[in-house]
Amino acid sequence: MKIWPLLIGIILICALVSSPVLAISKSDLIAYYRTTPVSPAHPGTTPGLSIDSESYNITLPIDTATFPKWTLPDIITKKPIFNYFYGPIIFSDTTAISWKPNIYLYSDRDLTARVRLAPEWAITLSDPVYRAGVGWQAEIKNGSLNGKGDFLFYESVVPDSVWQKEEGYVIRAAYREQDMASMLGRYGFNEKETVEFIEYWSTHLFEGLDYVLYPQETGAVDRVMPLHVGPEPDHVSRIWFYAEPFVSAPEPVAHPETIVRDGFYVVEWGVVIRDGGTTEMP
């Protein structure tokens, strides 16, 4: 029996096991997903589902009982795969991503709130970590979350075809911050919410490209990603914007929703961008 092929195979296996790529530490892997910059509309750098820090397990429980409108087969058309650098999901061309929704909680009295989203399997990133079946515990004191105006952050996969794309705002590349401030002002976002939206999205849309942002107001957002808060808030305002590169001017927004700030209330902003390889990095 020739032993050379066996010895060569053993050498190759040892080389692969000691490879720096395959020997990436658990802490390095988790740190990568926390620090990878977001490149909207480019699935190659889309952060994947939250990774179990002990086993890297990725779970996609389908909660059709509480969220029957769309289920996992409608969103993901191929078997999810795990890759250190590209995340665990292969998206279909009917998928979008809700990028960086921020949930702010305010109250005229100190209280502890439980915040949950559905479907939980659609959540891809969260900070603080969203606990399946539990959600977040939010401490509202001195008027706002943690007494500092903090927010709950998450991202999720959402269907692409359910959003209105008739009324919208043109966001010019040369005047991106001004146009965003004007748009947000129509809804009544406060200074902190506006600054945090502009700081992120003025730099995370492709440089030099004009966009149209189509507003998706509370009712539309609730139908796709229901939000449950206990105790029940007096007012909830959830405004997302569906972003597309500018092709033609949309209809002007005739009656923007007004954020009501009274008692115990919730404010959320986010941006939806189509994924699935239908747009390319410029």
Could you outline the blueprint of secondary structure elements for this entry?
Blueprint (H helix, E strand, L loop, with lengths): L3 H14 L8 H10 L36 H4 L19 E12 L4 E7 L5 E5 L8 E6 L2 E2 L5 E9 L9 E3 L4 H10 L5 H14 L6 E6 L1 H7 L2 E4 L4 E11 L19 E10 L8
Quick description:
The chain has helices at residues 4-17, 26-35, 72-75, 176-185, 191-204, 218-224; strands spanning 95-106, 111-117, 123-127, 136-141, 144-145, 151-159, 169-171, 211-216, 227-230, 235-245, 265-274. The protein has 282 residues and is of the alpha+beta class.
Using brief descriptors, characterize the structure shown.
282 residues, alpha+beta, seven-stranded mixed β-sheet, four-stranded antiparallel β-sheet, 6 helices, 11 strands
Describe this structure in words.
The protein is of the alpha+beta class and about 280 residues long. It has two domains: about 1-35; about 35-275, no CATH class. Helices cover about 20% and strands about 25% of the residues. It contains six helices and eleven strands. The protein has helices at about 5-15, 25-35, 70-75, 175-185, 190-205, 220-225; strands at about 95-105, 110-115, 125, 135-140, 145, 150-160, 170, 210-215, 225-230, 235-245, 265-275. The chain has a seven-stranded mixed sheet. Strands 5-4-2-9 form a four-stranded antiparallel sheet, with no helix packed on it. Helix 4 runs antiparallel to helix 5 (about 190-205). It is globular. Residues about 10-95 and about 275-280 have low confidence and may be disordered.
